[in-house]
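for the recovery benchmark. tokens below, seq after
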């Protein structure tokens, strides 16, 4: 149990009393880059957070901050209508958290492929219908798989422990690549397609939360929701009527909190 003794001594040096229980020093914990027990919590060394700039990724980043010693932020644009505004939100959130490791990538092939109102100007961004069971026109075919592939490549190079993504199923627009079964399948692809010594976990901490619960979690964690951007249509004032705006507004209403961003006059 030499590794446990060393870690316990380190905590004593910095004035923290850790709770250490049933740790097998011969297992992965002995690799100091993987985990540190801090005040009873397991802290990962380094994780990547996919940050679109939206509310969900903003709250996911706040959650990841409490679970990791260091974060790397990844932003992926794909020729969407609000690309510039989302990039600004990404950088504003990264600045807020003081994140130094940042990667901003463009995968414009999704815009060339088309099939989504977010990337094809010939397809209108429809008005929100939160009761619809149909997949909305804003669905970008297999987008999250493209993003996770890039995140996995970067994670393997950085030797990161996890990839955080702010996917949401409950109270969402029903994108097929936001379902838990998709992330379970992609986890298997990561495990099969990376080096034997690579161990990268997909983390979806808000996937089962409603938008109201996400807002509450963000407020609880002091997430900079005022810096986030959710609108699918506009880059100055949020439209308030696209699916993303409607879900966001419903979340703030359900949390009994005023949304800090500005909307077009109704």
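predicted aa per position
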């Amino acid at each position: 149990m030499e590794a446990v003794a060393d870690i316990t001594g380190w905590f004593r040096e910095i004035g923290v009393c850790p709770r250490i229980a049933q740790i097998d020093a011969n297992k992965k914990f002995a690799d100091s880059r993987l985990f540190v027990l801090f005040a009873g919590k397991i802290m990962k060394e380094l994780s990547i957070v996919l940050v679109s700039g939206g509310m969900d990724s903003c709250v996911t980043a706040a959650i990841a901050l409490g679970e990791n010693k260091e974060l790397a932020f990844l932003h992926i644009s794909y020729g969407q209508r609000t690309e510039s505004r989302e990039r600004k939100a990404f950088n504003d959130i990264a600045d807020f958290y003081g994140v130094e490791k940042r990667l901003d990538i463009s995968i414009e092939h999704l815009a060339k492929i088309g099939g989504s109102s977010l990337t094809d100007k010939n397809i209108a961004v429809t008005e929100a219908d939160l009761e619809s069971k149909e997949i909305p026109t804003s669905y970008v075919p297999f987008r999250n798989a493209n993003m996770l592939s890039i995140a996995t490549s970067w994670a393997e190079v950085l030797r990161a422990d996890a990839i955080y993504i702010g996917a949401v199923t409950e109270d969402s627009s029903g994108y097929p690549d936001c379902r838990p079964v998709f992330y379970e399948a992609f986890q298997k692809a990561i495990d099969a397609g990376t080096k034997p010594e690579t161990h990268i976990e997909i983390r979806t901490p808000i996937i089962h939360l409603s938008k109201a619960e996400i807002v509450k979690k963000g407020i609880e964690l002091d997430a900079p929701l005022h810096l986030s951007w959710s609108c699918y249509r506009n880059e100055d004032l949020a439209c308030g009527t696209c699916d993303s705006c409607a879900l966001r507004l419903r979340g703030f209403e359900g949390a009994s909190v005023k949304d800090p961003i500005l909307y077009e006059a109704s």
